[in-house]
Amino acid sequence: MKFGVVVFPGSNCDRDMIGALQHDLNQDVVPLWHKDKDLSLFSTEDCIVLPGGFSYGDYLRCGAIARFSPMMKSVIDFANNGGKVLGVCNGFQILCESGLLPGVLLRNAKQQFVCKNVFIKEEKGNATLKIPVAHGEGRYFASNDVLSTLTSNNQILYRYCDAAGNVNAESNPNGATNNIAGICNKNRNVFGMMPHPERACSDILNNVDGKTVFNSLFALS
Predict the structure, then answer these.
(1) 97 given a catalytic annotation
(2) Domain tally for the chain?
(3) Which has fewest Cβ within 10 Å: 51, 78, 94, 109?
(4) How do residues 47-61 score in pLDDT, each as one tens digit?
């Protein structure tokens, strides 16, 4: 599998993502500039990653301008043709703004930027993972109809929980509806999450739980 990491003006996690994929997960990675359009190097077996940061300064809404970049037009076509796309933090916001994922990311419930380790739980597994978050607009919200569809189609990937795996209000860092930390589309080729798995892939950081996220999403060896 080959990964393309899109770099927007204001991206600040692209190097983290590239480093984690290349050095910690031994994957082939190609940086992609936001003004380019060419994704001919990638097949539907590959993955395009939208990293965290503050694309275009987060003017208007987070991800609202990045959604219209030349590269995102190609990414949307790539996803609609079955290619894999992962958005982390600001990348998740961009995916929702572009319509590749349902719902929206709103200001955190306490109107404060949150930067700390949190725990998330796989919706269809028993693993509880410690993964960092760093966001001011990470509160996932969707209508009741959308939430019902996400649940019935098994599109909820991760929920915020405590260290013991209990999903409760106390473990929710931003007020996300139903503690939702990550979702996918109905076809299960577009994935979005607020926590940063790329920041939890190195033994130096004493936390490699992020590798489990990448392995779960892409079955990496």
Answers:
(1) no
(2) 1
(3) 109
(4) 999 999 999 988 888
